[in-house]
């Protein structure tokens, strides 16, 4: 096995050396394979000494085999072996792809493979293989292979013979690699080189044209070709030379074609090419409605057709046309080769004298450079400009004479003498340079540029050629996109994503230096009244004005808009609560000032909740939540005031203790009840599942919603038994609906952060499902992004355990946390639920629209079901439906209902109607 891997690693090293820029991951995997191979060898020696290493060795070998297979797939490289005594072979999975076979197909025999080798390569391959079998010679060969679909692929094969004890070759092993792309490039480059050589060695270009046509036909697999040259005086195209593969039918095709074509001739391929002055391609000449020789082409078996002009110094001196045996679509590489050959032959035709030809060639390439949209600069190793094109002059605002009196350091702001010396050293060593910088124009203005530098030889001295592109527009677009991603489109303030990033960084800095910071959660009072009475346009203008006032009042402190009428402020490096109080008073005073709106003077107030790090929370989630709680306390206190979270807790300690005591007895007294809200398939309106939502039927306070007691349950630890109760009751209800012969439904149950960290979560969940006899696939457990990212390694372990039972995993309130795509890919997630804060302002809010569309697209690419929460309006539903969001949840379909009422809804839903036709359900 060691020798097999060493040959494979040798092949992979060669591939990595040939394409280092294209295969960065492959290089890393090569290092792993070498390390793993050495480990396996060491383990093999240790196995004889210790029986306990067997399992580890097997695991290491299996992991190595998986890595090798993945590496082979990336590199397009397969390995094979052939047992001469048994006459049987083996090869890896990648070999099937290389030879165009299905992985389930049996491995073909050597004879079957030989029959598919191109006839021109068959004898060569046979000789090398037989030499390996009989003379134990290693071989490294490249050959063409006919794929089952008729295409031809270049394959590179390495073979290594193995001898037995008698010195006879008993086995061959080696690798095969798909080198089709490289060989096609090499073949075409060789063809272009051959054409150039034939022209350079001939006295009369016309005499060598048949050989050139044959070379081109052999390269592209065409059957015949011809050269037509214009006779301007006679206004005709004359056939100057032809070549075709032996065959009377093809020769007859040319015989039936007139040797001259009057101009203009709309049905003649060559004359049309002359008219449009560029390559012209017929995918199938035998079916060309405007091709006058279509009938003759069809009778001869000619289909694909290409014609291209021979040009020099802007003048067309000839037309070359070629015909192939099969219909063929135009491809970029062929057209590029045709362009190159046409230019090369055309220039050669125009050379009557060497000196004249040199002048024409220089003028031709100068024209190309001068017409380029990029700037070209040539300077010596000291930086002095030697040449520049017109765009280079215009881009900097200098005349050509002015620039040639300057150096590169005069315009390149980042090009110091030391940097120039470093760059010239790299270029002299053959390393191409790509860099970004800023250029200064004659008027003093600057602009960003992208520079590619390479060597150029002038009169035997090495110089530097710089291709410079103005990337101002691209940079502005990147900045604009970056701004949209992290700013609110209405107010231009930072959005939630940017605030979370800054808050997380500020917490780290404050923790490191022992400082405090404050989060101020601001909610405008009675803003909904402004929207309802004056309209949303007026509401938007009011939000913009409030944003300006906040930014002006706070100066350097970070202000962000979270959505709707909610704002948040970050105060860093605070000394004491008095400083925070002064800022809060300043905000309230700035906001309350009157504002003329639609002919009325509006006075808007705000409620502010304050949380302090580290007293009120040690992470952004806790600080935001506690500031939010404090804000609601400020509203309870009559609005237009601020409350500290700590003050709120101390003032209501007695009430919280009483509520905690009641909550502890709520489970015993069966005061908790479950409500259910349906998840609905957007396309059909069918209820696919439900989310269980707990309510507390308090004997004195009445029916309490989760936000009135869940925070308390989380703080006191009661959330764990409460969550277990919710899970059991929700599963019992699903089983009850099944017994009523209702269609199977999934039930979503929220996991609390504390429950998620419990060591017995997996065991308790499995026991509950077993006791109730419920199908685990009908259970969905919802977690938040913050819970996932708290300890990613443990999260993966827990989620994998739940998935192993068949339970589905959903991320709730997706988009407001701080998970990354790299982490998201690692978690076994089935569902993501878009947070309602992104849905409430769509359509209409470009930022929220973009985020929602991005989440839906991301879900599709990762094959994760996307559910939109908080859908309340037909416009929201239509927006989501147009973007193929699979499921929705919200008041538009149904508010949360008790089990009895939801059962009735389920029976009605058995005959669904597309929900986009429904009217919204009023909130209750």
From TrEMBL:
Pfam families reported for this sequence: EAL (PF00563), GAF_2 (PF13185), GGDEF (PF00990), PAS_3 (PF08447), PAS_9 (PF13426)
Taxon lineage: Bacteria, Pseudomonadati, Pseudomonadota, Betaproteobacteria, Burkholderiales
CDD domains: EAL (cd01948), GGDEF (cd01949), PAS (cd00130)
InterPro entries linked to this entry: Biofilm_reg_signaling, Diguanyl_cyclase/Pdiesterase, EAL_dom, EAL_sf, GAF, GAF-like_dom_sf, GGDEF_dom, Nucleotide_cyclase
GO BP term, pick one: cellular response to nitric oxide
Reaction(s) the record says it catalyses: 3',3'-c-di-GMP + H2O = 5'-phosphoguanylyl(3'->5')guanosine + H(+)
Highest taxon listed in the record's lineage: Bacteria
EAL domain span: 656-910
Segments forming domain PAC: 139-191, 433-483
Boundaries of every PAS domain copy: 361-404
Gene3D superfamilies according to UniProt: 2.10.70.100, 3.30.450.40, 3.30.70.270, EAL domain, PAS domain
MF-aspect GO terms: cyclic-guanylate-specific phosphodiesterase activity
Naturally occurring in which organism (per UniProt): Noviherbaspirillum sedimenti
Domain GGDEF: from-to ranges: 515-647
Name this polypeptide is given: EAL domain-containing protein
PROSITE patterns tied to this protein: EAL, GGDEF, PAC, PAS
């Amino acid at each position: 096995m060691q020798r097999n891997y060493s040959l494979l690693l040798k092949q992979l090293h060669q591939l990595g050396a040939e394409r280092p820029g294209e295969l960065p991951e492959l290089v890393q995997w090569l290092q792993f394979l070498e390390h793993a191979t050495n480990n396996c060898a060491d383990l093999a020696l240790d196995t004889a000494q210790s029986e306990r290493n067997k399992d580890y060795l097997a695991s290491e070998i299996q992991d190595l085999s998986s890595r090798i297979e993945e590496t082979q797939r990336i590199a397009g490289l397969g390995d094979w072996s052939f047992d001469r005594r048994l006459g049987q072979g083996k090869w890896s999975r990648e070999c099937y792809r290389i030879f165009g076979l299905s992985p389930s197909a049996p491995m073909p025999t050597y004879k079957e493979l030989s029959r598919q080798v191109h006839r021109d390569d068959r004898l060569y391959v046979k000789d090398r293989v037989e030499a390996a079998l009989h003379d134990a010679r290693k071989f490294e060969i490249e050959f063409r292979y006919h794929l089952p679909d008729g295409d031809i692929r270049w394959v590179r094969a390495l073979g290594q013979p193995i001898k037995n004890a008698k010195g006879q070759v008993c086995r061959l092993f080696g690798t095969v690699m798909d080198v089709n792309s490289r060989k096609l490039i090499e073949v075409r480059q060789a063809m272009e080189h051959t054409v150039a050589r034939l022209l350079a060695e001939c006295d009369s270009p016309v005499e060598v044209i048949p050989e050139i046509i044959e070379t081109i036909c052999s390269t592209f697999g065409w059957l015949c070709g011809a050269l037509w040259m214009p006779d301007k005086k006679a206004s005709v195209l004359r056939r100057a030379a032809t070549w075709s593969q032996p065959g009377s039918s093809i020769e007859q095709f040319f015989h039936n074609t007139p040797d001259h074509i009057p101009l203009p001739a709309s049905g003649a391929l060559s004359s049309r090419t002359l008219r449009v002055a560029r390559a012209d391609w017929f995918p199938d000449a035998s079916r060309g409605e405007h091709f006058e020789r279509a009938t003759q082409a069809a009778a001869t078996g000619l289909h694909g057709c290409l014609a291209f002009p021979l040009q020099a110094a802007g003048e067309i001196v000839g037309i070359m046309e070629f015909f192939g045996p099969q219909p063929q679509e135009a491809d970029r590489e062929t057209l590029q080769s045709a362009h190159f050959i046409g230019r090369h032959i055309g220039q050669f035709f125009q050379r009557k004298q060497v000196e004249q030809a040199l002048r024409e060639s220089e003028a031709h390439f100068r024209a190309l450079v001068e017409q380029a949209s990029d700037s070209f600069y040539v300077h010596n190793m000291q930086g002095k400009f030697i040449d520049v094109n017109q765009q280079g002059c215009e881009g900097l605002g200098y005349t050509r004479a002015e620039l040639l009196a300057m150096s590169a350091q005069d315009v390149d702001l980042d090009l110091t003498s030391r940097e120039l010396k470093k760059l010239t050293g790299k270029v002299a060593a053959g390393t191409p340079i790509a860099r970004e910088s800023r250029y200064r124009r004659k008027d003093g203005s600057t602009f960003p540029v992208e520079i590619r530098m390479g060597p150029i030889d002038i009169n035997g001295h090495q110089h530097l050629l710089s291709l410079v592109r103005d990337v101002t527009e691209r940079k502005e677009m990147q900045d604009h996109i970056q701004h949209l991603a992290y700013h609110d489109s209405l107010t231009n303030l930072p959005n939630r994503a940017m605030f979370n990033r800054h808050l997380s960084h500020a917490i780290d800095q404050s923790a490191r230096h022992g400082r405090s910071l404050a989060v101020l959660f601001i909610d405008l009072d009675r803003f909904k009244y402004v929207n309802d009475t004056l309209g949303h346009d007026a509401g938007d203008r009011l939000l913009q004005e409030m944003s300006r006032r906040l930014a002006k009042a706070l100066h350097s402190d970070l202000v962000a808009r979270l959505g709707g009428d909610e704002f948040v402020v970050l105060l860093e490096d605070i000394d004491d609560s008095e400083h925070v109080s002064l800022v809060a008073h300043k905000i309230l005073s700035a906001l309350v000032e009157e504002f003329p709106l639609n002919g009325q003077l509006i006075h808007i107030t705000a409620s502010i909740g304050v949380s302090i790090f580290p007293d009120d929370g040690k992470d952004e989630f806790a600080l935001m939540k506690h500031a939010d709680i404090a804000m609601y306390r400020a509203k309870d206190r009559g609005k237009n005031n601020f409350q500290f979270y700590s003050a709120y807790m101390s003032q209501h300690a007695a009430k919280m203790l009483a509520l905690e005591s009641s909550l502890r007895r709520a489970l015993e007294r069966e005061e908790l009840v479950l409500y259910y809200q349906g998840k609905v398939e957007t396309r059909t309106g069918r209820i696919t599942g439900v989310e269980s939502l707990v309510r507390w039927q308090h004997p004195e306070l009445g029916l309490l919603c989760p936000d009135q007691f869940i925070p308390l349950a989380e703080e006191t630890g009661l959330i764990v038994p409460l969550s277990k109760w919710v899970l059991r009751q929700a599963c019992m209800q699903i089983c009850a609906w099944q017994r009523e012969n209702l269609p199977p439904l999934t039930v979503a149950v929220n996991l609390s952060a504390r429950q998620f960290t419990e060591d017995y979560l997996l065991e308790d969940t499995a026991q509950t499902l077993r006791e109730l006899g419920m199908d685990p696939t009908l259970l969905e457990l919802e977690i938040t992004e913050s819970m996932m990212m708290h300890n990613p390694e443990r999260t993966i372990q827990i989620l994998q355990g739940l998935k192993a039972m068949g339970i589905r995993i959903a991320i709730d309130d997706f988009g407001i946390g701080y998970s990354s795509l790299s982490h998201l890919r690692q978690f076994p997630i089935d569902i993501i639920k878009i947070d309602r804060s992104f849905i409430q302002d769509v359509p209409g809010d470009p930022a929220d629209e973009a985020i929602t569309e991005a989440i839906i697209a991301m879900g599709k690419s990762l094959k994760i079901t996307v559910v939109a929460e908080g859908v309340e309006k037909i416009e929201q539903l239509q927006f989501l439906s147009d973007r193929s969001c699979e499921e929705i949840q919200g008041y538009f379909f149904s508010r949360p209902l008790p089990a009895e009422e939801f059962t009735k809804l389920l029976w009605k839903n058995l005959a669904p109607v597309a929900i986009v036709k429904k009217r919204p359900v009023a909130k209750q």
